[in-house]
Amino acid sequence: MKPAESPGDRWPARPPVACIGETMAALVPDPAGPLDGAGVLGIRIAGAESNVAMYLADHGVPVRWVSALGDDPFGRRIRAEVAAAGVDVSGVRTDPRRPTGLLVKDPGTDGTRVHYYRRGSAASALSPALLDDDAVRTAGLVHFSGITPALSTGCRDLVTALLEADPGERTRPVSFDVNHRAALWPDGTAADVLLRLARRADLTFVGLDEAQDLWGDAAADAAAVRDLLPRPRILVVKDGAREATAFVGSEVHTVPAPRVDVVEPVGAGDAFAAGFLAGLLRGEAPVRALRLGHLTAGAALRVTGDHGPLPDRARLAELLDRTSEGWAEGGW
Length: 332
Known about the structure:
Elements: H1 7-10, E1 17-20, E2 24-29, E3 41-46, H2 48-58, E4 63-70, H3 73-84, E5 92-95, E6 102-108, E7 111-117, H4 134-137, E8 141-145, H5 153-162, E9 174-177, H6 190-200, E10 203-207, H7 208-215, H8 222-228, E11 234-239, E12 243-248, E13 251-256, H9 268-281, H10 286-301, H11 313-320, H12 324-329
Parallel strand pairs: 1-4, 1-8, 2-6, 4-5, 8-9, 9-10, 10-11
Antiparallel strand pairs: 2-3, 6-7, 11-12, 12-13
């Protein structure tokens, strides 16, 4: 491998970022409890790519969310909430023939089950034609997740087309979060499809646990995952509440996760990806980008929804500047 470059040498210093993927309305028992005994369901929004977009906006990164919504109250609510977070939603089209996707959460003592009602949704009709949209074509970086190719043949064709060119020939880098959702892959094709996509991205995020679920003993640890995924310019392997490792060229950087009082883990992976990307886009060294990823994930872990508040700018800078010992020992 050639010597590692700084993130600023290989990633665009200029946004905007285009985050492509479906966001759904989410119905959640309030207060939290089993769905079959719930008297009230609260309405929230849920989408990996819009989560990333909102956290990027929190970090001051110009960002677009690109998708499709139904011409219905859920669609209008989602568009308004994502826009209110500072995200450009001009690339989100309204489909008059298909509904906005929906999920329902069922919290239980052994975790939360999710029931999806998204087949035939507006976003499931996305196709490679989306790549000609100005919101995507003029982006400096494109981000998507492994949820999108599971939604339909057209969505799978979209992400395949996005990664068709070899990394060295692309006009802008592509960031991919594996984000494996087993319930969306009933045909058992997830392992092969997600491995192929993860290998072709410029930057790939993957959790060590999901890598092991997908690829078994070949993903025994972070180094083994790098052997599986040698092509991404940057590979980030997240090991839950323990640490995250970034492979940048021939360099390896590992940063432990700070202590966080966890309320709910949903959305933390999306937040981590946004923090790491924000660090790269402002030219931070890999270790500081990993730290920013951890701190942004902490914002999601501290709330019951997917999107929680970041520390203020002064506190965020203080946390990033901690010594290695203080970082490992301290929480927020």
